[in-house]
Amino acid sequence: MYETALRLLEKIGNYGYVAYMVGGYPRDLYLKRTYTDIDICTDATPMELHQIFSEVVTTNSEYGSVTIVFEKVKFEITTFRKEFKYKDNRRPEKIEYVDTLEEDIKRRDFTINTLCIDKNGKQIDLIGARQDLDNKIIRTVSNPKISLKEDALRILRAIRFATTLNFTIEPKLKTYIKKYGHLLKKISKERKKDELDLIFSSPNKAYGIELLIDLKLTDHLEIPNLKKAKITPSMIVTWSQLDALDKYNFNTIEKESIRKINEVKDKNLLDNHTLYRYGLYTCTMAAELKDVDKRLLNEKYASMPIKSRLDIALSPIEICQILNKEAGSFLKPILTDLENQILDDSLENDKEKLTTYIINKYKKENQ
Ligand code: ATP
Ligand code: MG
Q: Longest Cα pair distance anywhere in the chain, in angstroms?
């Protein structure tokens, strides 16, 4: 990926423009962490990038950046800019392209996100990114008072980076986070949820949650229950304690998981019926809340006589044959009865035993 990125910078350079890797990738490379995507900044405009890369460019019109796939790797390329007249404390109303990297760096959020790499692989550090990376400090590029007012999402980004990198937030920035926490109300719930997801899925989440509480953000984020939430590894278990289904947008799987975790959390997870009805995933999630040993839960699940209706040693068709009847609504209570008996260990899941049970209990009443 790195070599591909250098070739991309070289290519843009061949057309007479300058381009650098910037943001998360140089930061994570410096910290020897695993990285995700590569952000590039350049003095070429989106139109000029279209000319250089003809068929491979998609323009993200809202933000004026372009995404390209170069040698099978995806890059997000943003033209040097300054952003001014922020509206709603989030989006710049107008973007103005600028000529130099220096000016582009000034509009970025945190110093640690301003380290660049040029086409020769050389680090460009204009405002002391490496010093703050070495000292593990999150500091805004501009005055925090102005920076957070311009874009209140930076409040959550600061906490997200502090959490995932295990960095401290500079005291003055902390002060303004507390002061301007209310501006988070103006930020879209999608953006807030993305950041909260990253905080809640970090192995260092306890620190992130502590910051959210200490910096008095839980009410502004409409998650007051975070203060009493139990800190457990899974993101979804954290969300399940926050009563946030009507506050943020969750996908269908998340919604279902949250609903089920809350339903099962007061039940005995090691009970066959609970495991059968809710499945291993939900019970494992709920186990985090109840300090039930996950290994024990796995063992219990593995030893269950049946895990679904398909595991019953007698099929619905076979039951119909035994009872000499066409399939119908009478089957449902019979299957439920079999499930319960088997799960209670009062009936062995064995074809012959089940057949005898059906004959004795149901043959007469169904004739
Ligand atoms: P990640 O590892 O999550 O990708 P990142 O630092 O690359 O972290 P991105 O959201 O990909 O974050 O943004 C790329 C860069 O754009 C950032 O490093 C930062 O320089 C700048 N940036 C992103 N969001 C903001 C913002 N809200 N305000 C100012 N600069 C921003
Ligand atoms: Mg990035």
A: 91
